[in-house]
Every structure is written in structure tokens, then in C-alpha cells.
Amino acid sequence: MVLWLTQSRLGRMKxxxxxxxxxxxxxxxxxxxxxxxxxxxxxxxxxxxxxxERIGQHNDYLERMASxxxxxxxxxxxxxxxxxxxxSRADLPNKYRVQASDIATAGNLLLVLIxxxxxxxx
Length: 122
Fold this sequence. Notes:
Layout: H1 2-20, H2 40-89, H3 94-121
Helix pairs in contact: 2-3
């Protein structure tokens, strides 16, 4: 009987946490308060709940950081690319137009890399 009750409690704990963590391991919502008692299993549940909440806070921090990096990296790079494209179309000697075009091409390649990194983390 005791083993069955313990398995039942473990099953409820598993269901609570499985429903709240997505396929990428991100916590989607807080785990509800359930009374699992003050025995070892209840204490384990409380520790797991606190850890899950901390993971959720960490995920929120990482998402805010990725959003900030998104702006801090893409904005100046887009400015460099745009100005290099304008220079490559300006009435300049061919040598300088080619160099400006090379800057724009390298900037675009770097932007693709940054986009891939930031989009992967978001």
C-alpha cells in the first residue's frame, strides 16, 4: 500500500513538471502548490519546485540578454553595411568602390552569422 501511494505521488509530481517544461527545456509556468507532505518525498518536491522556478528566472534573463545583444550588434552593423553600400555606388575611383563593396559584403556575411547565433538562442 505504501509503495502504491509513493508511486502515485511520484506520478503526480512527474505530470506537474512535464506539463510545465517545453521541448527546449524552458519552464512555461509556475508549478502549482500541492501538499506533498513533510516527508522526504515532500521535501524533494519542494526543492524541485524551487529549482524549476530558478531555471525559469534564468531562462528569462537569457532571453532579455539575447534581445539586448540583438539590438547592440545588429544596429551598428546595419549602419556599417548601409554606408558601405552607399559608398560603393558613389562617384569614386573604382579602387575605392571595390573596397566599399568588399566592406558591405563582409558586413552582410557577419550579419548572417550574428542572425544565426541570436536566432538559435531565442
